[in-house]
UniProtKB/TrEMBL annotation:
It comes from the Eukaryota. Keywords: Acyltransferase, Membrane, Transferase, Transmembrane, Transmembrane helix. This is 1-acylglycerol-3-phosphate O-acyltransferase. The lineage of its organism: Eukaryota, Viridiplantae, Streptophyta, Embryophyta, Tracheophyta. GO terms for molecular function: 1-acylglycerol-3-phosphate O-acyltransferase activity. It comes from Durio zibethinus. Residues 86-208 form the Phospholipid/glycerol acyltransferase domain. Its EC number is 2.3.1.51. Belongs to the 1-acyl-sn-glycerol-3-phosphate acyltransferase family. Pathway: Phospholipid metabolism; CDP-diacylglycerol biosynthesis; CDP-diacylglycerol from sn-glycerol 3-phosphate: step 2/3; Lipid metabolism. The gene is LOC111302001. CDD domains: LPLAT_LCLAT1-like. It catalyses: a 1-acyl-sn-glycero-3-phosphate + an acyl-CoA = a 1,2-diacyl-sn-glycero-3-phosphate + CoA.
Amino acid sequence: MEICGIVTGVPLISVFIFTGILINLIQVACYLTIRPLSKSRFRRINGAITELLWLEVVWMMEWWSGFEVKLHTDFKTHQLMGKEHAILMPNHVSDTDTILTWILAERMGCLRSALTIVKKSVQYLPFFGWTTWFYEFIFVDRNWAKDESKLKSSFEALKDFPFPFWMTIFVEGTRLTHDKLLEAQTFASSKGLPIPKNVLIPKTKGFVTAVQSLRSFVPAIYDVTFAIPKDHPFPTLLRIFKMQPCKIKVHIKRYSTKDLPESDEGIAQWCRNRFIAKDALLENFAATGTFDDEEITTFRRSIKSSIVFFIATSLLSLGAWISCQKFSLLSTRWGCTILATTIGSVAIIVHIFLEFTKLPPQKSKAAL
């Protein structure tokens, strides 16, 4: 039930809000004072403080909920991850996919520069969305007439980014659902294309623009495949709040941007071919429960995220205790009203996040 998720989510979001308020205030101050003088210094400071907030989200997934993430890739790719600019091209299976890329980025030491292209409405989410706006996420309308120039200018602005970044692009454009998969299969059948079973047909315009705009200074594309083992639930924000673990396996194959075709149509076809291969990879995973590439056994849960969350929780608890003592919040009607209003406001924010990430009603009741 969602009410259970709201109740268990209140203490987690309380810490997130506390940290978010501090970080947003610092971001505003630095944006107004430091950025006009030095964009590079602003990015460094902004990345360092934003990383603290993202580490709390990573902690929620891994330590609170018990998400288990296993990485499969080759040795060369693993050695380069986090040390070079890269475009990430994952399949889109759940509302936690962006956070899954953060877990990968945290392990590789580039969480403070893990960027994503997301829908425009994300920037209005309390604290989370505001932080991503300063953090240089790219927000799109899902209307190419509006998005083309915004994408090109945003990619151009990354030329002088001060440390290795990851730019994640969900080229399917939306999360995989049974209804969306049926639509993709119908479209593929009408066009004589291979029928997908585990992915949607990619929308290639944004990806082509990314490659053409970034290939001069971004050396790699990481073809990322998220796979959910058979009989395991899909990860959701609600499951995180309710401490319900999920198991995710991640396969990454690296491609050099220099090896991609030069023409727009060539790049678009390359992207479509990769999703055909990704579909086959997921089909094989469904049959065998594993990927061919060796598992990276050193890929363990983050200790840094635990330290950050413990410090934030301690500061919030100390501040709450001092406030209760100083303003008699527990012994007066006015104080109890303030406390109840605060808790209620946090519960509303939890509800907003749950509603924002909830899948729309499906026409078909069949499961993926």
